[in-house]
């Protein structure tokens, strides 16, 4: 019998598609029977070509209403969260770092973090207390101390947006972090800073589970995930270790397309 006590995330035969507009015909499923288990403390990387369903998976896991589950289920920490709204999933400890973080005018980074931390943990820190708590992480991630007073993502460079997402992950202390192409648009120096931040968070929180969605092996080289999965046409078609990423680098996705 399989021991599921350490399972943090269990995805079973998941099918999902964009939510159709009222009166419109539903489109085809993008996720087509996806299965995956992430245990506490593990780092899983998902790689796949454009259109394979990677970002659909990330959004579906966090309950983005733009996507709907047509069959299958999502279990988080033993609970069936398939129908849970996004805010409830976030409060329970699920975190999504966006591929394209949104700008929010008029809301500073420090205000956003204060509201998010209050919702996540019920901790009502003052702005000064939270500022002190963020200072160490800003240093680790190469951010100027004035960063938290800027409006969220407004005028941020690509690297600043991604480092801000990692700082949010550090402050909010989720149980499961889903990083949707965190390395997208980063130069090698910015990528190393982000990877260092992720490693530092894992040192403090060894039970954190991470689902890392990426196109590129360079982030995997920095983080050395426990498992690598290849996703093609809405399914995971191969799983293994870093040797799988190396094979992908050598042979490309064509070597895996027949497996779906």
From TrEMBL:
NCBIfam families, sorted: sufC
Signal sequence bounds: none
GO-annotated molecular function: ATP binding; ATP hydrolysis activity
Annotated ABC transporter domain residues: 9-258
Keywords: ATP-binding, Nucleotide-binding
Protein name as catalogued: Unannotated protein
One Pfam entry name: ABC_tran
């Amino acid at each position: 019998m399989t021991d599921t006590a350490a399972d943090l995330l269990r995805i079973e035969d998941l099918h999902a598609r964009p939510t159709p507009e009222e009166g419109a015909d539903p489109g085809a499923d993008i996720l087509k029977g996806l299965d995956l288990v992430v245990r506490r403390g593990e780092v899983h990387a998902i790689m796949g070509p454009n259109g394979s369903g990677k970002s659909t998976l990330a959004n579906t896991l966090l309950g983005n209403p733009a996507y709907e589950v047509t069959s299958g289920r999502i279990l988080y920490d033993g609970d069936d969260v398939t129908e849970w709204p996004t805010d409830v999933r976030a409060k329970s400890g699920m975190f999504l770092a966006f591929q394209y973080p949104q700008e929010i005018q008029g809301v500073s980074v420090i205000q956003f973090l204060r509201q998010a931390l209050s919702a996540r943990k019920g901790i009502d820190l003052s702005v000064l207390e939270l500022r002190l708590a963020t200072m160490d992480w800003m240093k680790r991630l190469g951010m100027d101390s004035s960063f938290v007073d800027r409006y969220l993502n407004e005028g941020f460079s690509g690297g600043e947006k991604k480092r801000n997402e990692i700082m949010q992950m550090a402050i909010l202390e989720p149980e499961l972090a889903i990083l949707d192409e965190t390395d997208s648009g980063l130069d090698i120096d910015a990528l190393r800073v982000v990877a260092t931040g992720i490693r530092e968070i894992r040192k403090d929180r060894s039970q954190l589970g991470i689902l890392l969605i990426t196109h590129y092996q360079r982030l995997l080289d920095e983080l050395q995930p426990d498992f690598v999965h290849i996703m093609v046409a809405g399914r995971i078609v191969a799983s293994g270790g870093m040797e799988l990423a190396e094979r992908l680098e050598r042979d490309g996705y064509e070597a895996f397309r027949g497996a779906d």
